[in-house]
Design goal:
The protein has 446 residues and is an alpha+beta fold. Helices cover 27% and strands 25% of the residues. The structure holds flavin-adenine dinucleotide (FAD).
Amino acid sequence: MTRWKKMTLTGWGRSHVASVEAARPERPRDLDEAMADTASGTLIAHGAGRAYGDSALNTNGRVVLTERLDRVLGFDAATGLVICEPGVTFANLMEIFLPRGFMPAASPGTSFATVGGALAADVHGKNHDRHGGFGDHVEWFDLLLADGTTRRVDAQNDAELFAATIGGMGLTGIVRAVAFRLLPNASPWVRVKERRIRDLDEYIEAFATIRDRSTFSVGWIDAVATGAALGRGILETAEFEAHDTLPKPRNPHRVPFDFPGFALNHFTVKAFNAQHYRRVPQTGRERRKSFAEFLYPLDALHGWNRIYGKRGFYQFQCVLPDAGARAGLRRLLEAISEAGNPSFLAVLKTLGRSGRGHLSFPMRGFTLALDFPRINGADGLLRRLEAITLDHQGRIYLAKDSLLTREGFRAMYPLLPRFERVLAKVDPASRLMSDQARRLGLKGAP
Ligand SMILES: Cc1cc2nc3c(=O)[nH]c(=O)nc-3n(C[C@H](O)[C@H](O)[C@H](O)COP(=O)(O)OP(=O)(O)OC[C@H]3O[C@@H](n4cnc5c(N)ncnc54)[C@H](O)[C@@H]3O)c2cc1C
């Protein structure tokens, strides 16, 4: 019998807190039991809880924790096809496959995320121009539907359910196995080039050149810089490098307590950013790094979300199409520096093409992601950033979202009507439900 336990869960930003009943199945067949038990109404899958907002929460409902469903079920070295349970993490994949020269084609910026969470958010990495998003490499998945049946779904035979589930934030069912292709010729080492970027214009030009030439690229932006320095930062590009040793395992530190709310303020962040900008010499620099250190810099500090204190923080991430990106990014950065909400984690990347899902986030353009402490005025700032994103035909990423409005959501995701048609077919009683789905008015939420 499935054991349900009352607990409190939060998203990674700790801005949303939910009282739920949770089960932690050990085997895929336990999922059937959890789904069959209709006593308490709604439920949603929860991977590693690395989505920032409320997409893996279900207040006063049920949550199925997939972390123990973490077996790799098969691998074909000739094709790179791997089959695994949804709770397998990117750290697991890297540990097993990188020494053999294979890597996940799209990996988010944390190795703690699970494969189920990656499929549900159609995640992208620092190589989207070159290799696309996670969903681009999925061959099929087994999906446990609200009626208790499991369906093997692929893009040829079940195109609409496939497209609704890739990027569908867990609302079509619970993914119980995924088959996706790993890329060959990967190495545990990369050669990283870093250079200072003076301002936003230089950023746009630099990305225009390197996005087709470099395998990996990512920019850090000093989000408190203003005037002529608006948009300044450090651009990193990376290529695999062969080397005859393996990197030493990382030795992560842990944030031991919630920082007091005042620790992050305009002055501390300004000082940190100025120093961070200058750490790279004016002439740039080049270093060998472990692939993991390059892909997952924040994983070196466990529980870093506690730095923002008990009230937590919001993450804002949008993508703007190439055409309006320069003007749109300028307006976003101006609004951010005017608001005076100190953000020290601001990242700029390019995305190469649209994803395969109805609600896939990627489109060809520039994506900006920032963390904001949840202080007075933060909600208003996020509303302004939503409006600017809409003005420039952009969209907000559901895996990072905490406050997106229903109207904004509908305008940003033009394939939403198709997504909703699939939901009406596979889950007419809205058993799969999250706080985010309620907030966005999905599934008939009032
Ligand atoms: C430090 C950090 C860096 C990040 N960097 C990036 C990045 O570079 N690119 C990017 O795209 N994202 C990034 N993310 C976001 C993260 O990759 C996504 O939120 C991802 O979905 C998290 O996976 P998870 O296993 O933690 O899922 P959760 O947060 O637990 O859940 C996220 C969604 O997936 C659904 N889900 C989980 N498991 C299943 C399942 N088995 N079946 C159906 N639905 C399921 C949930 O219902 C929920 O809607 C980052 C997050 C952090 C914390």
